[in-house]
Amino acid sequence: MNPQELWQRYQDWLYFHKDLGLYLDISRMRFSESLVESLKPKFARAFKDMDALERGGIANPDENRMVGHYWLRNPDIAPLELKKQIIENLDSIEEFVKKVHEGTIRSPEAQKFTDILSIGIGGSALGPEFVAEALSPDKPPLRVHFIDNTDPAGIDRILKRLHDRLNSTLVIVISKSGGTPETRNAMLEVKHAYEQQGLNFLAHAVAISKISELERIEGCLAEFPMFDWVGGRTSEMSSVGLLSASLMGIDARALLAGAKEMDIATRVPDLKRNPAALLALAWYAAGNGKGEKDMVVLPYKDALLLFSRYLQQLVMESLGKAKDLDGNTVHQGLAVYGNKGSTDQHAFVQQLRDGLANFFVTFIEVLEDRTGPSIEVKPEVTSGDFLSGFLQGTRHALYENSRDSITVTIARVDARSVGALIALYERAVGLYASLININAYHQPGVEAGKKAAEALLVLQRKILTVLKNTDQPQKLEALAQKADAGDRIEDVYKILRHLAANRRGVELHGDLAKPGSLTASFNRAASG
Length: 528
Ligand SMILES: O=P(O)(O)OC[C@H]1O[C@](O)(CO)[C@@H](O)[C@@H]1O
Known about the structure:
The strands form three sheets. This protein has a six-stranded mixed β-sheet with strand order 1-2-11-10-8-9, sandwiched between helices. The chain folds into three domains: 3-61 and 253-442, 3-Layer(aba) Sandwich (Rossmann fold), CATH 3.40.50; 69-250, 3-Layer(aba) Sandwich (Rossmann fold), CATH 3.40.50.10490; 445-527, Arc Repressor Mutant, subunit A (Orthogonal Bundle), CATH 1.10.10. It is α/β, with parallel strands linked by helices. The chain has helices at residues 3-13, 33-54, 69-72, 80-102, 126-135, 152-162, 181-196, 239-247, 252-265, 275-287, 307-319, 349-354, 383-400, 415-435, 446-468, 476-482, 489-500; strands at residues 15-17, 22-25, 115-119, 143-147, 169-175, 205-209, 222-224, 294-299, 336-338, 359-366, 405-410, 474-475, 504-509, 519-527. The site of 6-O-phosphono-beta-D-fructofuranose has 14 residues, from loops.
């Protein structure tokens, strides 16, 4: 297309939400009118599916669950029995936050809580992390820290940082299931750190969980529910996201208001007037409805750095499915990665421009450069003009080379626009899932990795028992046999190597470059 035609296509497909100041431009995605025509029946069904979901239908058939994250920002549309719960929960979060800020709720050792340590993983971490990075004030009433893994060194790093302030740190333990090992481990490690300092962990802890299932946290400072009908990856507007955000001084009501406005906009059953439907169309067109192209998310704003990581879970855990709703094997998905512009122009954008054309870009543009004035870094040019120029330049350069892009533009990064962005993508994922006929709200695949890990830990215990009861160094094959794992010698080797590296009493003898020749023994003196 020539520049005039492109300008026309830009205007034809531009979506603008006046109150939110949000633009969506899909003009640089190469789809035809005939594709749009052919997708109309699918969109009609997607709008109907979404309507049924919002009315409380069982939108997650495998788990027999309702899907109600839209109700969190507009309790009036929730089933009557849930409306009260949502309102009361928000009120109790606000009351708790007010008391923490005033110092009415405080730790036994300090006048006020100074820090938050948020423990959770996946949907119980990514939203709060993204929102904290995007919106935390420069001087928040409480500074936030996250542990979102079972990495001992990672846990130590955070605990060292907090060492002198552990007594004024509020620990929020977040787990919908209450049984996620990483979260449980991190909680026990943090509890241990409190005990090492002679502090009562429970007097510093808040639980967001099905409490009864989260071990050893009964009797904590406060408990907030994680509703069964809110999925982890869409839980930012529940207790999961709102508690830490409010404690940090972020306007949670504005976050909810932005999401609510976006929900209204994305409820419109008309493709061209519905920004989430336009996104779903663009994704469908890019990857033939099969995710054949990856989504590269590039916010040109440092505060939005974690948006791509947040979207990675929302999109990939929702859409990456083996079966469709009719039981056919489809292996669907949509890969998401990204970081930020213009930083990435000095990193992976080279490949985007000239290399493998297996992606489309989503630029996130923010119109307001900063709140204060800007100096000129060249005559009539500011740093922000450069940033804007880099975004436009990259968009042109990619398009020239047949690389497509979407641009989402917001006026500024604030609680309202971040709420709107989250809601926009939540809905786009839901609509796209309907287009490709999959269940976006379950995650059967993640269980496989968890089960395999559990099996390895069972094997580890067996190996240790065998080794502790043998005097002679054992060949790996023999050890595997004795541990009832004759066909898992590689697993046995990996377990031994890890134990040997961590002062757990295991010693490996022989040439490390030839794992098959090694023998292993247990030396009590080498443990601990
Ligand atoms: O909140 P939970 O139950 O600890 O789960 C954390 C995350 O783990 C997953 O279940 C995947 O394992 C995600 O869907 C979820 O967000």
